[in-house]
Specification:
Blueprint: H1 2-20, H2 22-25, E1 31-34, H3 39-46, H4 50-57, E2 65-68, H5 75-78, E3 79-82, E4 89-91, E5 109-110, E6 117-118, H6 124-132, H7 134-137, H8 141-155, H9 172-195, H10 202-227
Antiparallel strand pairs: 1-2, 2-3, 3-4, 5-6
Helix pairs in contact: 4-6, 9-10
The structure holds zinc ion.
């Protein structure tokens, strides 16, 4: 037991050291490194609605992802997620809606090569909610994590990257943008006031419709450009 704990601690320390030097670890001519300094990951950290994706849907964003600068395909197909444990360079589409692996990743992104968990960033509101509810989940954390770990290898057995296309290409960005807008509208207009005991008003419900349609389309278009 003690031996197991020591190995886990050493592994965690190695991961930490890796993250400290992450930008110098990859050849800058070949790879662009994305960490929490990038706007897309910053958005994930500070947007309170993303707490829902993390805590309920189990959608997670890795602490480090890479863009292959030599790739001629879209950003969607050129994103690589390195595993700090076994140093595998995973195709970013390993965890995607098309593979059925984008969600239920509550404990992080499972590495199908070494059966470890690739560390992920934590949304600020999700961190706050987890901190406040600590006494309710801490006692069963290890048991639930183990059950989750046991289920993972099967999910990644038959990955197929051949037919996966960029979800933002064509008119995909409109669909994703409007879904994002609807989600943000429901969150900001109804869920957030409930959580923070503020009144839900008819005017905010009406004004929210055009605002979030536009914001959703803006987000979708921006992602199309970013992923293209
Ligand atoms: Zn690994």
């Amino acid at each position: 037991m003690e031996e197991g704990k020591r190995i886990v601690r050493e592994r965690n320390e190695n991961v930490f050291v890796d993250e400290m030097r992450i930008e110098t670890k990859f050849d800058p001519k070949r790879w662009k490194v994305y960490t929490s300094k990038h706007w897309m990951i910053l958005h994930w950290l500070i947007n309170p609605a993303m707490a829902f994706n993390e805590l309920v849907l189990g959608q997670r964003v890795p602490k480090v992802s890479l863009l292959d600068l030599e790739s001629k395909t879209s950003r969607f197909e050129s994103t690589v997620i390195p595993c700090p444990h076994c140093h595998s360079m995973h195709d970013g589409r390993t965890w995607s809606t098309q593979q059925g692996t984008a969600f239920w990743n509550w404990y992080g992104l499972f590495c199908p090569n070494c059966n470890n968990v690739i560390p992920c960033v934590r949304n600020l509101l999700a961190a706050l909610l987890l901190g406040l509810s600590y006494p309710f989940w801490i006692w069963s954390k290890e048991r639930r994590r183990e059950r989750w770990m046991n289920r993972q290898p099967k999910r990644f057995q038959s990955l197929n990257f051949g037919a996966l296309s960029n979800p933002y290409s064509g008119r995909g960005w409109i669909k994703i943008g409007l879904s994002y807008g609807l989600f943000m509208y429901l969150y900001m207009t109804f869920l957030s006031p409930l959580l923070f005991s503020e009144p839900i008003t008819l005017s905010s419900a009406l004004i929210g419709v055009p605002i979030w349609i536009l914001a959703g389309l803006g987000f979708g278009f921006f992602m199309k450009k970013a992923m293209g």
